[in-house]
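Please predict the structure of the following assembly.
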Amino acid sequence: MSLAAVHKPPRTAIVLVTLAAVFMLAPMLWVLILSFKDNTALMADTGSAFLPPWTIANYRSIVGEGQVFTWLMNSVIVSLAMTAGVLMLSSLAAYGFARLEFPGRKLLFVIVLFGLAIPEQAVIIGRHQMFSAASLHNTYAALVLPGLSMPFGVFLMTQYFRAIPKEIDEAALLDGASRLRIFWRILLPLTIPAQATLGIFTFFHAWNDYWWPLISATNRDMVTLTVGIAATQVNFAQSEGLGFLMAQAVFAGVPTLLVYLVFQKYIVRAVAGAAGQ
Amino acid sequence: MRYLLALLPLAMLSACGKPEARTELTIQRFFGACQAEFGTLADPAKAEGECGIITAMINQFEAANPDIKVVENTVFWPGYDQLTAQLAANGPPDLVTMHSSAIPDYEARGLLEPLDADLAAVGITPDQFTAAARVGVMVDGKTMGLPIDVWAPLWHVNMNLFRQAGLVANDQPVLPTSPEEFFAQAAQFQERTGKPYLVQISTKDSSGPMRIFYVWMLQQGAPLFRDARHANFDSPAARRALSFMKDLYQRGYSAKNLDYASAVSTFLKGEGGILVDGTWMVGKFDAFAHDATSPLYRGYAVRSFPFLFEGRRVALVDGHNWVMPTDAKRTAREREAAQRFLKYFAANDFQWARTGHFPAYKSIIESAQWQQLPHRGDIATITQIGEPLPKYVRRQSAIEYVVGEEVSAAYTGAKPVDRALTDMQRRANEILQSY
């Protein structure tokens, strides 16, 4: 039996996977088709999306909104800053919880985990007042800082650090390496799959965030893409501006798609790595 | 040359420190953004739709007032979350669009400034407003905003189907005058056209069912609320209104399982006789009535809700207004700029009324210019009989959601009418007694 024959997946599996892919892609294709159709035609009948004429007017309207690229840049800055911050803080905290002995370590870890059970809605008023008192609304700091406390990130990284044999640390200590050096030079590179998973998760979370930017960034120059493009919708957009609404969805989704395409190799590896843990 | 170079940084610094000669007026509004299409248009007469007209109006105001820089913040409808956050952070805009039904809630918390003196300073007095617009902005004798329109839920009629059903007389739609007549006409319509008489929202939107329920209650002369802390939904009038809604739905006289977009689409495809929707659709449906490919071609009419119940001749209305949030930091120049902005909107309310909403000024309602707009004469009485939600009740939007949800549950059969009304009453009272 040849190698190719061994690796060839069964035909049933191919058919099932193809069907699943079509099933998954259908709503996205529907969104894409609607985005190229005139709004008035869609108001009368969404079925007209399959018939010409099609138009790029909806995309022209988005790009024609003078501030859309400012909002895009704001989203990029906020998402990248939040991702970097979460990776740094979660890794450091996780290293401490996984490797260092200090009084109250277990209690502190439990308190951090409690954060997983507290919804954003429960703290949003207090948080808003806090940032208001510090005059931080309408700044990047206000958009980034709340997202840095991510209990899930600490938990994920702690579990990952715990899975790395302690003998590695001990060998490095014997060689005279400092704790920081062990963390930075030895352990951190071993956690790259988990970092990738957490990084992707955080980036998408920050990119899609709507509520906090909505109430914190009330200055039009500071809003993120999600809030900005939502504000451009006409009233009853689901009926009178459906094509525009779908074009907005595509426009807002393209950057995340690009992130996926560029980092596809790492994402797959990260997911596979996480699954293997 | 060397001296000039030395002076250059100084000149640049002084330029940086030069104060902005234009007064900055920050306004916040919904109605969407349409910069690509209307961003440079400064003639509202050439704009279309809410977004286009308001954009062109603001452009025209800026062009006519070069000493004022309008900073325009467009928010996702209705934008109250953002406004509340801005007020909490002590950074509200100078003027904000607000529904009449939302004014009492903000007013009661001292978050809005009365505008009587500001409006008087630019020659605007409440007696210039239509009755419905005036009631919408007046709270305890104070004018809390500048009304720009009044809107109402309406009956949009497919006259082509009505003709087929034999429900047209003198080129006017024949509408029922009692629940019994409603059922008779609906049956006749359905028999002759094979289509449902009524197209209404029954899912994913609480405002549509809520408005219809409120109208039928008001027509019976029943107050929606007993007082500021108690609703009146567990009452005979409410039971009669909701039972009627359930009957017509269950007997198949209404298209079923429609959200807002599919209800509009169903009507435009000629799949039902009457669509219950707002004033904002009049212009759009009229455009379809001029499109030879549309089922509405030469067959569109619009009317206020028919009076089915003996009681009061009343219509439910709401309205859009400019209000001024309280801000201790607002300067006299900013306030003066706001007054001029309000004056401009009052003077140009006809342009805004082209959206389909009713103008807020008697002079415009009475003008030939407005009456010549399509269909306006058929519904103008609403500005006289229109009644907004009572001002003594706060948290209207939260209550509206509860009412819409329970109404939908009842007429779609998910809940018995009595239980829906009991739940509606309890939930509304909880909201009314929670502050």
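DSSP finds 17 helices and no strands in chain A. Chain A touches chain B through 38 residues (CB under 8 Å).
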